[in-house]
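[job 4417] fold queue: 2 targets
>>> target A
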Amino acid sequence: MLRQMEMGGALRLLVGFVCLSLLGSGTSFAESCGRDVFSDVFNKASSELVRMNSKRATGVKLKLKELKALASWSDQEFLVNASPLVKNEQILEFDSQSKALLASAADFGGSGTTLSRGECGKVDELRALLSLLIENTREKWSFMEKGISVAIANMKSTKNP
């Protein structure tokens, strides 16, 4: 669970870093396409990720708390038994995809690259890339929430046959 919260913080930090990197990549980049256009794309994506991660993390914490209470797990049992619900092969794959998308966004303008007016369509490419990141993050949270909900339902059915 802590790893999930750290990932949200890492996403905010990385998206902010990418934004700053692009803004500082050269004056011709800003003059050709407008610094504010690219900044706005990153700011909107970052805001969406922060909002989603905050909201979904709160929901996951509440579901995990419910599961722990239903199962009557000690803190140690909870860490062992709930860990696979928040860190498993599929969730690690979502994380890997997010890292790859963030790396692509970080490399987007390339260091020192100058975009001419004809290349300003790259803003749409950036929007698409960041939309993929947002969707991947949404799918990860949905997958995690579904797994926890199934565990809760299973625990309820064993308690009340």
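>>> target B
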Amino acid sequence: MKKVLMFLFLTCLFIAQVVAQDSTFSKGDKVLNVGLGLGSLLGSAYTTSFPPISASLEFGVADNVLKKWAIGVAPFIGFGTYKYDVYSGHENYTYIPLGVRGVFHYSFVKKLDTYTGLLFGYFIVSGTHVGSAVASRGYGSVFIGGRYYFSEKFAAMLELGAETVPLHIGVAYKF
């Protein structure tokens, strides 16, 4: 019985290693992500007037980093409008985040591209706050996400923790 269990355990480890090596993202790949943001990291007093949308075009720049990782870089753009309710009514804000993403990919299972990364950029903000203009500013964030490929080119995308929203859902297309 011990031999059978040991054989099954070693077989599972071998299969996990083989599956983990089937990369869904590698050097030379180009992937367009288009997402819709849900929620807000701005605070409970902020509500969305127009749901945040985002797009990035990721380029695979390196693979086999630390044996199993791939690296991508991507320009990023978004758009969202928010309403802030105050004692004297409400104030409207428009956020346009522009940035660059550095993305680290690791494939755990076939068809699922899991990744984490850093986003650095600049918020272009328009609106007023208690009678004065709101300042645009630089920003940075950390995110984690995944793309599940339904076919060789099309995927569903989910990301946590990017720019002003806690969750992005969307689609991706690989060129």
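[job 4417] complete. Note on B: The chain has one domain: 2-174.
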